[in-house]
Amino acid sequence: MATIEDVARRAGVSQSTVSYALSGKRPISADTRRRIEKAIEELGYRPHAGARALASARTDVIGLMAPLRTGVDVNVIMQFVAGVVTGASRSGYDVLLLTQDEGSVARVTSSSMVDALVVMDVEDDDARLPALQNLRQPAVLIGLPTDPHGLSCVDLDFAQAGAVAVRRLVAAGHRSIALIGSPAEVVSRHTSYAERMTRGFVGACEAAGAAYLVLPTAASAAGAVASVDRILAMMPDVTGLVVHNEVALPHVISRFQMRGRGVPDQVSVVAVCPENVAVSLPSPVTSVDIPAESIGQIAVEMLTGLMKDPSRGEVRLVSPRLTERGSVHEVEVVTGA
């Protein structure tokens, strides 16, 4: 196999000059660069991946930070990942999946391992934001922190998703509504989507004059059972339910039925979840769909735009779409005499 020494000899330059041409660390005249490129082609020289990246200032790799923190639904996370991978493939990029949180930003960017970053599981006051803001590489967040620090963001508009779910129940006559929310550990981290979902839910209930209850719920059968029992103890007249917890959803419905509150006759349900979750239940539920794969693809589209023009930063929130699947029952609204 040809070596960098062979290339230098063929091009009539020093090895350091070939190295500078590959790395871009020093300016090389156009004539010298052409001789080096010709020598590389004639000899079939193949620099290692790091040198190729330095030569072109590109790796053709997008880093995807998807830290596997407690309380997250890995199945939903993987839908976002699938969207990023699909979008990257269409744009000619590979994806480096980063599941560790601490130090990942500095490690992969300072060593030029990636051309850009997609960052998931964003918190309201995310500790990664200052580092991301100062990167040479562009970054897109899947999530919306309180202050994006000028970074580009894309996500479902979870505040509107919560509001849309409540308005559907209110329109059907429900005035006692509970939210089965994200697990407590997700809420305690002030994860962006959970915070916005709750704000949208509470705001819509208050605007409609509806009684409401918000319960963080463990992503498990036991967590679902505990939350349903607590709802029935604290709000026995509950008739409307918003569920933003994919793992708990089927167990919530089962527990209400066991407690003599069938869906939708006694309790109406609107879920906020990916479409496949809503339709996979024995009786599909009306839902505000989380288009996870689509959002992943949009994140890559935004990244490729930023790589061409760094001034194209933006915050893009996908409008929620409610799909009727028969789990909302109309109730008679009793008015005062």
Automatic annotation (TrEMBL):
Q: Which domain of life is it from?
A: Bacteria
The alphabetized UniProt keywords are: DNA-binding, Transcription, Transcription regulation
Q: Cite the InterPro entries for this sequence.
A: Cro/C1-type_HTH, HTH_LacI, LacI/GalR-like_sensor, Lambda_DNA-bd_dom_sf, Peripla_BP_I
Sequence ranges assigned to domain HTH cro/C1-type in this UniProt record? 3-46
Q: Which residues form the HTH lacI-type domain?
A: 2-56
Give the matching CDD domains: HTH_LacI, PBP1_LacI_sugar_binding-like
> What name does the UniProt record give this protein?
LacI family transcriptional regulator
What SMART domains would the database entry show?
HTH_LACI (SM00354)
Record-linked Pfam families: LacI, Peripla_BP_3
Residues in a coiled coil are: none
Gene3D superfamilies registered for this protein in UniProt: 3.40.50.2300, lambda repressor-like DNA-binding domains
Which PROSITE patterns does the record cross-reference, listed alphabetically? HTH_CROC1 (PS50943), HTH_LACI_1 (PS00356), HTH_LACI_2 (PS50932)
